[in-house]
Amino acid sequence: MTRLSLGLLALLLLAGSCRVLAHSTPVATLNLRATATQGTYVESWNWASPRDVARPTAIFPEQCKSEPPLVVCGDQGLVGALSVERLGERYSAVVVRVVGRDSKVRSYTLTAAQPVLQLSADGAMPWTHVAKAYVPLGIEHIMLGVDHLMFVAGLLLLVGSRWMLFKTITAFTVAHSLTLAAATLGWVGVPEKPVNAAIALSIVFVAVEVMKLRAGRPSLSARYPWLVAFGFGLLHGFGFAGALTGVGLPRESIPAALLFFNVGVEIGQLIFVFVVLGLMWSHRSLQVAAPRWTESAVVYAMGSVASFWFIGRALLILTPAT
Amino acid sequence: MIDLSTNRGGRTVGRCHQPLTRLRAATILAALMMTLPMPASAHLVSTRFGSFYSGLLHPLTAFQHLLPWLALALLGVMAGGRGVRFGFSLFPLAVLGGVLAGTIWPLPETLMRETDLLNVGSFVLFGGLAALYVRLPAWLFAMLCVLFGFSHGLANADASLHGNARWLYVGGVTLAAYVLFALAAAGAAGVRDRLDFGGIALRVAGSWVAAIGLVLGAFELVRAT
Q1: Model confidence over A223-264: pLDDT tens digits?
Q2: pTM
Q3: Nearest to B205 by CA among B131, B153, B137
Q4: Domain limits of chain B?
Q5: CA–CA separation, A6 vs A275, rounded Å?
Q6: A137 min Cα distance to partner chain B (Å)
Q7: CB distance from A146 to chain B under 8 Å?
Q8: What is A103-168 written as a DSSP string?
Q9: Contact A16/B182, CB-based, under 8 Å?
């Protein structure tokens, strides 16, 4: 009955998970295109917020004057500190795209954890900036990704020993890292909508396997949960890739951004796993049990919500994009 | 398995089970961390993770809630198996009731101040009882869980939220109460039963909470007058 804690956690996560759409990370893009005049740029924004809020406001380096739609920086050019007001409150990230007079594009990402961008004449971005920007984005994505967390929770219900848990979580990590990298680097391309539908289906599958295990009919998944974790982990990696490409990747720093985003995802996943294991341990050690039916109810709830997601997301595949 | 019926009452009995080096190192590290300069803001909550995490982190990042909740978990362990089981269920439910009530029917400013004072009182009460290693009867511990769970829930309410954000926030605060109580109680029981000076460690922790509560209470009274 120590799994009650996991169930409660899952139920509360379900509270905010009724939307069919996959979770999103609101991101705005600031485009700065150099004009024929030295040190002058045209400012434009692309933004879409599920919360219907206005676009963010940029704070340009001292020598730059904003004369919409122009940003005039004079002879010094676009060099110095660039930041965005109230970043993190309404938007998770702002991607800054600077198009030089030579048409060369440089991209940078600002987040609440890395709110200031130091623009240099050569456009280089230090790896510390990439780390500060992308690790929190990875954590944010997994923490807001109720579907990913529910899948991990299902895996925890399937495993029976610490060694198996280690193998299962490692398999999931390796698998989603592989597809995240492959999709982000453009080696493979998978449409987002079917991936999201299949991710929902993976939760249904795990929930069914947990119920079978509880009924005393352990299937292959219960004996080799790491296999399930690896197989579906490949799928979840495509989901992570969708989020990462949505945020925008600095072309010059793709490997570093990919690495640090993945590190963030792993940190978030480990926090979740350790909290759940801690709760299981506390129930076990303090001998706090709950009626057996509550566990089944929790697994059924997970399966039902995931089925609802699957149907909704499958319908979205058939719906033409607007 | 930890035997909850055991009560060492803070006495050092039994033999040493494991070296204390790690514990000492952790204590020194924790003490050093407490000396680091930190911003004095009451809550370190960012809304970027949404209302659920905002609710989850709200009580956990404010020592006005964090410390009494930890002390309540200590008291639960001292109260024994039945008491701690009450804590697992009643405390989060009472917090849920309080945060729901405060969200739907926000308290007037004067009543809110009195609720804050009551919560400061919980510092001293829980900390003091833990410092004295008082084994409360399970029913009395249950009543404390309900009373102070509700008052702390009220103090954590955010009436400015609407729609889904409101329910997510309420869920987050409730989960925080459950997670904190569960982990702290299990940790405290582990310390008490596995370390020679486990009972003393719990009493010391309780005394610290009580002392902080007294300082905070004095500060609140000065501010009120």
Answers
A1: 889 999 999 999 999 888 877 776 666 666 778 888 898 899
A2: 0.73
A3: B131
A4: 2-34, 49-224
A5: 9
A6: 10
A7: no
A8: --EEEEEEESSS-EEEE-TT----HHHHHHHHHHHHHHHHHH-HHHHHHHHHHHHH--SHHHHHHH
A9: no
Q: What's the first-to-final CA gap in chain B, in angstroms?
A: 51
What are the φ/ψ torsions at residue A85 (nearest 5 degrees)? -65, 135
Taken in order A252, A255, A261, A267, is the CA torsion positive or negative?
Answer: negative
pLDDT digits over B83-139, tens only?
899 999 999 999 999 999 998 888 887 788 788 888 888 888 999 999 999 999 999
Chain B residue with CA closest to A8: the answer is: B175
Question: CA B150 → CA A79, B56, B94, B106, distances in Å?
Answer: 54, 16, 5, 14
Chain A interface includes B141 (CB < 8 A): no
Q: What tokens does A315 get?
A: 């319908």
Share of chain B above pLDDT 70, in %: 77
pLDDT at B170 over 90: yes
Are residues B49 and A286, on separate chains, in Cβ contact within 8 Å? no
Burial of B37 (0-12, 13-18, 19+ CB in 10 A): exposed
- Residue ranges with strand state E in chain A: 27-34, 40-47, 58-59, 65-67, 70-72, 80-84, 93-99, 105-111, 116-119
Distance, in Å, from the CA atom of A33 to the CA atom of A18, rounded to the nearest integer, reads 41
- Binning pLDDT at 50, 70 and 90, where does residue B2 land? very low
Whether the pLDDT of residue B18 is over 80: the answer is no
Kindly state whether A74 is in contact with chain B, defined as any CB-CB distance less than 8 angstroms.
no
* B30-53 pLDDT, tens digit each: 454 444 433 333 333 344 467 888
The complex's ipTM? 0.73
Q: Tokens in use for B37?
A: 């300069």
Q: How far is CA A205 from the centre of its chain?
A: 22
Cα-Cα-Cα-Cα torsion A79, A81, A84, A87, nearest 10 degrees, comes to 140
Q: Give the gap in angstroms from C-alpha B75 to the nearest C-alpha of chain A.
A: 14
Distance between CA atoms of A186 and A176, rounded to whole angstroms? 15
